[in-house]
Structures are given as C-alpha cells and as structure tokens.
Amino acid sequence: MIKVTNLEKSLGGSKILNNINLNIEKGSIYGLIGPNGAGKTTLIKTLVGIYEPEAGKVMINGESIKENTKIKSRIGYVSDFQYFYPNFTVSEMAWFYRNTYPMWNEEKYNSLKNIFKLPNKKIKRLSKGMKTQLSLLLNLSISPEVLILDEPTSGLDPVIRRKVLNLIVDEVSINNTTVLTSTHNLLELEQICDHIGIMYNGEILLEENIDEIKSKVRKIQVVFNGTIPEEIKNHKDVLHIDYKGKVYQFVVNDNLDEFIEETKKYNPILLEMIDMSLEEIFIYKMGGVGYAFEDITL
Ligand SMILES: Nc1ncnc2c1ncn2[C@@H]1O[C@H](COP(=O)(O)OP(=O)(O)OP(=O)(O)O)[C@@H](O)[C@H]1O
Fold first, then answer.
1. What is the ipTM of this complex?
2. Which residue CA neighbors atom 29 of ligand 1 most closely?
3. Which CDD domains match (predicted)?
4. Ligand 1 pocket check for 40: Cβ under 6 Å
5. Are 190 and 278 in contact (CB under 8 A)?
6. Helix, strand, or coil here: 95?
C-alpha cells in the first residue's frame, strides 16, 4: 500500500505540493484528476523518489522509499514522457530491464509482447504512443507491487487504450498490485478506479470511494402536493435543488433513506430516484466545498 503523510514540495522557489496526505490500500486503483498545473506529475515524481520532499513521508508497504532500492525495484512507473536510451532497440531496452529488476518475469513479458506488438526498432524511431506502450510493457513485466502511472493512456489509440485499461484491471485482480494513475479522463476513472482524488493548486481537495459516493449521492425527483415544505428545502443532506414548474430535483449527499422518509410525510404526488454519472456527482460535491467543477477538471 501507499501511505503519504504531510508531503510538501517546492520547485523553482514556489510551493507545488501543500500538505498532501494519501492512504491507498493494497490492491486498490486510485485515480488522480485535476487541471493542468495542479501538481499531479510533481506528486507522482515525489512518490517514486525522483523528487525529494522538503517535508513529509512516502511509505510503500510500510517502508520509506528514501534510498530504498529494494522497494524502488518493485515500483512500476510509467511517466508522462518516456526517458529511454534513444539508440537502444525495444529488445535492448527489455534486456536492460531484465538485468536491472530482480523480479523481471520473462513469461509475462512474452505474453504482453503479443498484446502490444511493437516493432523492434530503435527507441528514437518509435512514435509517442509506441514509447508509452513500451513503458507499460516493461513496467508490467517487472512484477510491480505498486504501479504508478502518469496519464498512461494519453496519446494511445482507442483500441490500445481499452487493452491498457483491461491490463491494469487484470494486474490488480491477479497480482493484487496497488495502482495510482493520473488522468484527465473521468470516464476512464469511472471504468477502472475504486478511489478518486481531486487535486487543485497542490492540494487534494476531495477523496472518495467511487462505489460509496455513487450509493450515497443520489438525485431524487419529487412533485409535492402544493408548495415545497421548508423542512425539505433546508434539509441538511441536500447538496443542490433544481426545479421546473412543480417538479423538484434534489441532490442528496447522504442519509438517503432518512430524506425519503421525511419527504414521504408530505404525501408527494411523485417521488423517484434518478441515476447520476460520476461527473455529475462531482459537479455537486465540488460545489459543496466551494469550487466549480468545470474549473477543476477536463
Ligand atoms: N521543474 C520545475 N520547476 C519549476 N516549476 C515547475 C517544475 N515542474 C513543474 N512546475 C510547476 O509545478 C506546477 C505543477 O506542475 P505539474 O506538472 O505537477 O502539474 P500536473 O497536474 O501534472 O499538470 P498536467 O495536467 O498539465 O500534466 C505547475 O505550476 C508547474 O509550472
């Protein structure tokens, strides 16, 4: 698992990470979203030990990553830009990883090679998407205990993108790997992640368990027999109210059953539950903590 406490990092004289705390359970897929410049890559580089924080700690499986080559050899890291030796071929790069990472799995490498189907060219002759694929291929082959991915699907075509998402999910279900991935694609997060963190201005503004938030935050449509009761209008668990004519839509943050019971006391003509996408849920949740969701993502 990944545990981050009170992490602070400055670059070029500016504070980039501000008191970051994370607790990512083993076997979990944690999605990090946030606008350009929020600090996602800086956080990721600090997690893998490329940057040294001024304050705070990064622990992986209970051990500090600082000067810990044993732990670092079990971290798969796919960066936003790939820094391979440009004159190495794909096979030579695999040779390098095979000789560097003690838990290299040749069988896994061979089966992944059939999925990615990369030409054995020099790295400098590969496209951006091919280099990302190579990085995924190599980092999955080292038998990572922790996989840290910085926008791993950006620049991939839709077919490979889907394969990569499936590979990440397989990696977790087969090997119980812990994954942290950044992305700008909320739909992708919804498809593979169990937890999500929203980053803004170097801080984690909101952290949620996706299943929990989807079961807790619900939209309910109600038509009252008369005007809306004050008690319902000012209900503590209502995040947002919309209405068109007599049809009210409530976004309820928690204690759904309690809200429904209280609403039923007023004998509404209609009371029904409406499905919400994760994006819609976050729009309201972010509004609840004083931010416009559009400013925060995508
Ligand atoms: N080497 C550096 N020196 C100084 N400032 C930096 C450096 N690298 C990044 N920054 C600044 O740190 C902030 C966070 O950048 P970072 O790359 O972590 O954001 P991000 O959330 O990954 O953005 P994106 O979604 O665009 O990839 C930005 O304001 C950026 O200008």
1. 0.98
2. 37
3. ABC_DR_subfamily_A
4. yes
5. yes
6. helix
